[in-house]
What does this fold into?
Amino acid sequence: MALKTITISSKRLQENDFFRLDVKYYFVNVLFDGLCRNKGYTVKNLDELKIKISSGSYIDNYVSSDEGIKFLRVANMKPYSIDEQENSLVFVKKDVNDKIKVKENEIVLGRTQATIEKLGISSIIDKENVGSAISQHVSKLTINTELISPHYLISYLNSKFFKAQTALATHGDTRVELTHSQLKQVRVFIPSDKILGDIEEKTKKIINYNRESILLIKKSQNLLKEKLKLNTFKPNTNKFFSSKLSTMSNFEIWNGRSYLPKYSETEEYIKNNFKREKLGDITNIKKGAEAGSNNYNTDLFKDKRDFAFIRTSDIINNEIDMYPDYYVSETIAKSSKTDLISGDIVFSKDGKIGEIAMASSYDRAMIASGFERIRLKEKKSKITPEYLFTVLSISETGFYPAIRRTIIASTIPHLREERLKEINIPLIDDDSIKEITKYIKTAYELKDQKKKLILEVRKEIDGFFDL
It folds into this structure.
């Protein structure tokens, strides 16, 4: 953003309820004044729009997915949609207080975070997530639809206008927080009916495309599990077991978890019952790179040519977040030589093992060193990128063999590249591979359409930011 100079009267400083002295806060107010004066747009805060704000509750007693309902925490809050990946969700008993459950078209956002940059990321509740509960660090906005559309508001809350207003946040010793009183003061501009209607319709499509793509991925995963007969295979889940010294010596990892029957027996089952290829034989694998925190930019102040810098927290429902916490310059991204093209698979190998996504043509991104970029070699088998993604995305053939080969490097779990290459990719019948490929291709075409619309909506709203 270009350098701008604004002048604020002492009277206005004294009238501010929050006694702010930071420039960003007043800069945004000047923008709103200009929208009212030059465009004739209405500007109202959330309180004036009669939006009810509430928060969830602290619950630490988790249950299985069969027994409970989703418990949405700050980490599940992503732009527009909830992160529903298996490793990201926990569940709580169904009989929790109805006040902390969510309804369709309510908006949820993280009200506490480690930094301002991560604060207030907003998701909208679709039919699939109705009835989920929210944690005490999540705020819920119940919309008065007579005054504002929830679909316009969710796009607005993922724009620069809201991100700039997180300057309202209270700074604690280790975290920042948007209190309910501060959230009520968040200002929203209401554009012309034409612009408003266009944004609403595009946002509805964004929500629908997101859900359809998730369902198609699940459909492909279920088909693969059926073909591998994983629904009937029952490994020993006992956590008390013994392992031969020779077995541990041959596997070359002295970590008890690597020999849990659930993991080892599942891998043996795949090896003994299906033809397979080694991941390292059919793909080119390349590690991501680090940019250095001093080179980070944030969404509010990034250059138009900056690359999204993707860390493990920036994978959402098997896709790359278009608006992650940080960005890096084009120069740094290209010098890292971790080029990412549509169809590439990214797989996390540090910290949170097994986070997986396929790259889109809309992903202008650099992946951090915690990822491996996996690219299928020139076609030497019937395996497609889509089928390979599906194999690596289910626990039995992706996460289990990966976690077996994970060691603790100082304090962080780490999966070495040469061990990742050992993972077996089971082969099923050609027709099923084609069917899975079709599902995943369609899913990622929908994700592409979703990302295209998000870019269009952001451009429409953020276009007013530089007035």
